[in-house]
């Protein structure tokens, strides 16, 4: 009887663990952070990095003419300790969610004031700005979605997004 109680307890613990694990969203795309320091102030973007894995990305997984979460999993988050000028648009210091609006001809980066939501929960009434990105074509594909800062000076950098054959660039300056 004593062994039976131990087995029953172990089975109950395994069942509880399986319930806990199944309640969490799957994390197929790993998390990443792009960070730059401009004029002594940190700017960071937390996002998840989906991969191509044989899929059509632009105009497929990332549909043209629809808002995309700019990554995977939780919403992509921009945190800035400085007031920024992003592509000619003022973005005050704070925390924001980044979405994008891709088209075949060009892209817009959407800076949204709502934070803490899952990546597909988009409220356009909370948009701070929609900013044009400079689009170019890469000669070789980038398998995993990447966001990075290319520092240009002590007070400026380019935000660079790459995936598949697409490269998007946005100048960022500390005000």
Provide an overview of this structure.
By secondary structure, this protein is mainly β. It has one domain. 13% of the residues lie in helices and 50% in strands. It has 1 helix and 9 strands. It has a 9-stranded antiparallel beta sheet, with no helix packed on it. β4 and β5 form a beta hairpin. The longest helix has 22 residues. The radius of gyration is 20 Å and the shape is globular. About 9% of the residues have low confidence.
Gyration radius, to the nearest Å? 20 Å
Please outline the major beta sheet: 9 strands, antiparallel
Alpha-beta classification:
mainly beta
**Chain-averaged pLDDT:** 89
Strand order of the largest sheet: 1-2-3-6-7-8-9-4-5
- H/E element order: HEEEEEEEEE
Range of strand content: over 45%
- Head-to-tail CA distance between termini: 73 Å
Record field, number of beta strands: 9
Instruction: Note the overall shape.
Output: globular
Query: How much helical structure, as a percent, in the residues?
Result: 10-25%
> Which residues sit in consecutive blocks of at least 5 with pLDDT less than 50?
10-25
Q: Could you say how many structural domains there are in total?
A: 1
| Count of runs of 4 or more consecutive helical residues | 1
């Amino acid at each position: 009887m004593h062994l039976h109680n131990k087995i029953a307890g172990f089975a109950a613990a395994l069942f509880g663990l399986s319930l806990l694990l199944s309640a969490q969203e799957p994390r197929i795309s790993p998390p990443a952070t792009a960070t730059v320091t401009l004029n002594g102030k940190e700017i960071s973007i937390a996002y998840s990095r989906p991969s191509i894995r044989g899929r059509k990305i632009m105009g497929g997984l990332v549909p043209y003419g629809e808002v995309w979460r700019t990554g995977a999993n939780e919403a992509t988050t921009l945190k800035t300790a400085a007031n920024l000028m992003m592509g000619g648009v003022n973005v005050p210091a704070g925390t924001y969610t980044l979405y994008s609006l891709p088209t075949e001809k060009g892209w817009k980066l959407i800076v949204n004031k709502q934070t803490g939501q899952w990546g597909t929960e988009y409220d356009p009434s909370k948009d701070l700005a929609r900013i044009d990105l400079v689009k170019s074509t890469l000669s070789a594909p980038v398998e995993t979605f990447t966001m990075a800062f290319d520092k240009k000076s002590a007070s400026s950098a380019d935000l660079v997004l790459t995936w598949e054959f697409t490269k998007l660039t946005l100048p960022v300056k500390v005000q």
